[in-house]
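Researcher: Please predict.
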Amino acid sequence: MVNLNPLFYTKTPNQLWTGRNDGDHPLVQRWHQRIVPIDLLSGEVPVLSNKKGIALIGFACDEGVKRNGGRTGAKEGPDHFRKASCNLPVHFEEDVLFVDLGNVRCANENMEEAQQTLAIIICHVIKAGYQPLVIGGGHEVAYGHYSGIRKAVKSTATIGIINFDAHFDLREATVNGTNSGTGFLQIANDCRSANQKFRYLPIGIQKNSNTKYLFETAANLGVKCIPSDRFQPLLQQELQQEIDNFISGSTHIYLTICMDVFASSVAPGVSAPAYSGLFPDPFFFSVLASIVASGKVISMDIAELNPTYDQEQRTAKLVAALAFNTINIT
């Protein structure tokens, strides 16, 4: 059993996983029929040996967004994702174990404890043989998520971070402490302290969303980005080579998607919307598929789903589509 502080954890209510039922045959099942809710305060996560497993974890925290001056509401994202995913058809193999491990939550504005709680769960489920799928919550999820991966793998392992995001999130902490924009600088600092290489590839960076100082910070850290204006089908071969080279130099890949990387017309329910951005078209999904198909993705998350500002569940449904595609590739 995972040793968790109950203030920072809650199980998933069973009523969130209900939906259309076309029968129990595997060919007609939907996610709500296959997922297995587990209360980590009282239940055990089955250890896997000869089968695959997906572990869904909610990060119901947007304290980092609040500290960063963004629009709060993303803490409700995990449960809205569950509602949007209930009726997704099951296309993964019959022997894949799909578990829902509930939500990490932020009590008393203590974001750091929430991040530590997430790290404990991530480490536990990776060692048990699962690939975590974390749904946020603000992008402060990244620091807790990475910390858990780092604890689960060998110290000699190289963790490459691929981040679909409009922002570098390489900000320095403010008087309010760390926040949703500081996570990857925190990771870089931890890597330097542990004499480990910081490997970070942001995709979708927008020049009008990042200061010149942040571009200089990235350059000083040896970070090369793929800006949003280069992410286009005409450059697919060139971009794919850059991504493949990054993956080949990493033992594991931590994949993170911030929903503000997309244009606000397709993803209005985010903490920091932008009129421009990427579109979830066949080109985007082909690039995403190539990353997951590498076989190196050890864990992934989708951050900044903010139901307060969503319209017609467009953003929640897009998050569901992202999860659906990545799960079906693994």
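Model: The chain has one domain: 6-329.
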